[in-house]
Design a protein that fits this description.
- With 389 residues, the protein is an alpha/beta fold.
- It folds into two domains: 4-310, Rossmann fold (3-Layer(aba) Sandwich), CATH 3.40.50.970; 339-389, no CATH class.
- The chain has 15 helices and five strands.
- The protein has helices at residues 4-24, 29-46, 70-79, 85-89, 119-138, 152-156, 158-170, 198-204, 217-229, 266-269, 273-280, 292-322, 324-335, 354-368, 380-383; strands at 61-64, 146-151, 175-181, 208-213, 235-240.
- Helix 9 (217-229) links the parallel strand 4 (208-213) and strand 5 (235-240).
- Helix 1 (4-24) packs across helix 3 (70-79).
- The longest helix is centred in the last third of the chain and has 31 residues, at 292-322.
- The radius of gyration is 23 Å and the shape is globular.
């Protein structure tokens, strides 16, 4: 059988993604069609979570940086049972649960609200830092991975540069970033605006960098295994993907690698929606369908995730019984609640500089809020953030 079913599942994601945009008459189908192979392998074979407990704190996280690629995320979460086909049909409609850019909804599997490009990169780095912070205090038994997906536009954003540097410096080996490198952005090919070597850039920051065919299931698996075996560095997987993979013209010719499919429905871009659906194995008159073998594939994957989560939860219970005080502290950390704070106890003198007053507050917080993470970029002795140990 090989990759027959897994590839059909990726085609199912392409079909649903393009159909959502076509029905809405608005959106971005091309990137979602190119990224379907990676998201499909990640969700069926690598991403660890409990389908019956989506808020489980030991779940792996997936952060989508390019929010315009929401059809891809909604489609894979539909195959996983968290959105219905009717939800997908309401894509980009007022009041629907499938807005053009995803809005955080952990119960449905959406970890982050996707705003300006680059934000998802920084959110993923922050989540990876938080995971290492917790593991350092409570043990590797609770470790989990953070995956993120970024596009050419996100890689270009300056906020991504800062996030990438600190992730490399901190050696966040629990972080895996997939770069959907299709060489196309909204209005032009990327060559019109940049010629940088992204692999060398991330390598210079201390990342483990892998370059693969991002539409090849076996290469995606190989890269994810490599990333999960990495112990000292975050991993960037550069997936060379095809924008609009599967798109066809009215005469059946290829309409792949076209800038036009980035930001408009296939039927308006120069491609034929009907011929594209036929090429991918769908009924153009009724494309909002899940293939039976794909439904079975995802059902088996979800059951495997439930079983794996039950094993890890049993380990967690054992640890909690053996470490009751630490368990109570962990629960406090995860509750999102602050301890009682008495700011009147912070001592001030008259007419002190505001940065000194800030330092006094930070010193107080350092003693009373154990799960607070603070950083300062080469200014600690000036802005007095060294008051926070």
């Amino acid at each position: 059988m090989g990759n027959t079913v897994i590839n059909k599942a990726a085609d199912n994601i392409r079909i649903l993604s393009a159909s959502m945009v076509e029905k809405a008459k608005s959106g971005h189908p091309g990137g979602a069609m190119g990224g379907a192979d990676f998201i499909n392998i990640l969700y069926t074979e690598f991403l660890r979570y409990d389908p019956s407990d989506m808020n489980w704190h030991m779940r792996d996280r997936f952060f989508l940086d390019p929010g315009h690629m929401s059809p891809m995320l909604y489609s894979v979460l539909c195959l996983s049972g968290y959105y219905s086909l009717e939800d997908l049909k309401e894509f980009r409609q007022w009041g629907s649960c499938t807005p053009g850019h995803p809005e955080v909804d952990v119960a449905r599997g959406v970890e982050n609200t996707s705003g300006p490009l680059g934000q998802g990169h920084t959110m993923a780095v922050g989540a990876a830092i938080a995971e290492r912070f917790l593991v350092a205090r409570f043990g590797e038994w609770m470790s989990h991975r953070t995956y993120a997906y970024i596009s050419d536009g996100g890689i270009q954003e300056e906020i991504s540069q800062s996030a990438g540097r600190i992730a490399g410096y901190l050696g966040l080996s629990n972080l895996v970033l997939f770069f959907d490198s299709n060489d196309i952005q909204l209005s032009t090919d990327t060559s019109a605006v940049t010629c940088e070597n992204t692999a060398m850039k991330y390598e210079a920051w201390g990342w483990n960098v892998l370059t693969i065919d991002g539409n090849d299931a076996d290469q995606i698996r190989m890269a994810l295994r490599n990333a999960n075996n990495e112990e000292n560095r975050p991993t960037l997987i550069i997936g060379k993907t095809i924008m609009g993979l599967g798109a066809r013209t009215a005469d059946g010719g290829s309409f792949e690698r076209k800038c036009a499919t980035h930001g408009m429905p296939l039927g308006e871009s120069g491609a034929s929606f009907e011929m594209s659906m036929q090429n991918l194995g769908a009924d153009p008159a009724n494309p909002f369908q899940i293939f039976p073998e794909v439904s079975e594939l995802y059902a088996k994957s979800l059951e495997n995730k439930r079983l794996a989560a039950s094993v890890r939860k049993a380990e967690q219970l054992k640890w909690e019984k053996e470490n009751s005080e630490l368990a109570a502290k962990l629960n406090r950390f995860l509750s999102g609640e602050l301890p009682e704070l008495d700011f009147t106890s912070v001592e001030y003198t008259e007419n002190i500089a505001s940065r000194v007053a800030s330092s006094n507050v930070l010193a107080y917080l350092a003693k009373n809020v154990e799960n607070m993470i603070v950083s300062s970029a080469d200014l600690a002795n000036s802005d007095k953030t060294d008051g926070f140990p």
